[in-house]
Specification:
- This protein is α+β, with helices and mostly antiparallel strands and 147 residues long.
- The chain contains 4 helices and 4 strands; from the N terminus they run βαββαβαα.
- The chain has a 4-stranded antiparallel beta sheet with strand order 2-3-1-4.
- A hairpin with a 2-residue loop joins β2 and β3.
- The termini are far apart.
Length: 147
């Protein structure tokens, strides 16, 4: 199962209500066969703009980041469930990509661009697509009618 990160902004509420809302959001992950990896509380934040939800204006919210694993087909269901929740102001799920293992050596990086392998390959590809800029039937190696 791939790893995802859920960014939640919950409305400002008392601690027991906040705990029950968090339990409700994490139970929806468990019910779909997922499990939690990490849970972070980022604190109460001032929202960049006021959010109207359920005929109320919200200026602050509690921010959370939840890292979890769940099958990919369940992501749309989770997003729909969180959008219907009255306590969730904003939600977004991001897929966490594994970092690629790119090989890089210092000697290749210190070379001038004209001597790097990638640049040489790009120049060969570009040279294949270029056309001659002057007509060949004149017998000259330059265009004679330049000003």
């Amino acid at each position: 199962m791939p790893t995802y990160e859920l960014a939640l902004m919950l409305r400002t509420m008392a601690r027991p209500e906040l705990i029950s809302t968090l339990k409700r959001t994490t139970d929806s992950i468990f019910s779909r066969g997922g499990f939690l990896r990490k849970f972070d509380y980022l604190g109460d934040k001032q929202l960049p703009y006021r959010i109207h939800k359920n005929s109320q204006k919200h200026f602050t919210g509690s921010a959370f980041v939840v890292t979890f694993d769940v099958p990919p087909k369940c992501i749309a269901d989770l997003m729909e469930e969180y959008s219907r929740d009255v306590d969730v102001l904003k939600r977004q799920i991001f897929k966490i990509e594994e970092p690629s293992n790119a090989e890089c050596t210092l000697s290749d990086e210190l070379q001038p661009p004209a001597y790097r392998k990638e640049v040489i390959q790009m120049m060969k590809v570009a040279a294949k697509g270029q056309k001659e800029k002057y007509p060949q039937n004149t017998g000259l190696k330059y265009y004679p009618f330049q000003k």
